[in-house]
């Protein structure tokens, strides 16, 4: 497992959980979202991701939500940290909740962005016609283009799984490009060029598909039920959600707020999904400043 630290070694510990599944740690987040004179910020590449090994098909073995939760706890013990703030966006918010539900006594607070709760409707929004496809119809057409016509009425994630595991390199790369382009088209209010390398696109698409095709190893409503328990009501929680998020629709954030009435939900009126958009970035920095005052 690859990990790195930023900030004050004697500062309040915080761990950042990256998105995807299949992404990697983003070097700009610690300085953008934390006052590094006050915080000790830890990041790590999840199984199969970034500089953690192995990657590719080998990185899918023993790679589930619950393996990642165990990895976070193992990293905490390794670093000699008693309790820490857990900060996660998109898939990172899913993993943060799963960790907090499993190890509530190790969490000083939660800062969550772009909520994804692993519910079937959330995944269907992305990968079944009738959801995001109606907002970005031309991009959806490009997304399904690699799928043979005879298979287009079937489960898209299952079919993509076969394409991404093909022995034909061209087939794999074409599918990975289409998968990455579809997600990128939904991630920003103003679309940006995708700067990932071919191998990064292929690895992320493979891991995302692996998780989504297995329902992220979550039972229906599991995270919402866990979030509603009295144990989590004692954990300070701030939810930051872009009003125009097309990857993780705000309805999931509203569900989480209902399950966690004590949480503060901040809807950002001029933002989509990405945490780097100005309104969201400012809200996340404000959230960590508030958390510092609460838990110092």
How would you sum up this structure, described in words?
- It is a single chain.
- By secondary structure, the protein is an alpha/beta fold.
- It has two domains: 3-119 and 220-295, 3-Layer(aba) Sandwich (Rossmann fold); 121-216, no CATH class.
- It has twelve helices and seven strands.
- The chain has helices at 29-33, 65-79, 91-102, 120-127, 137-144, 156-164, 169-187, 198-212, 222-227, 230-233, 250-259, 278-295, and strands spanning 3-7, 12-17, 39-44, 84-89, 107-113, 237-242, 264-268.
- Helix 1 links the parallel strand 2 (12-17) and strand 3 (39-44).
- Helix 5 runs antiparallel to helix 7, helix 6 (156-164) packs across helix 8 and helix 7 (169-187) crosses helix 8.
- The longest helix is centred in the middle third of the chain and has 19 residues, at 169-187.
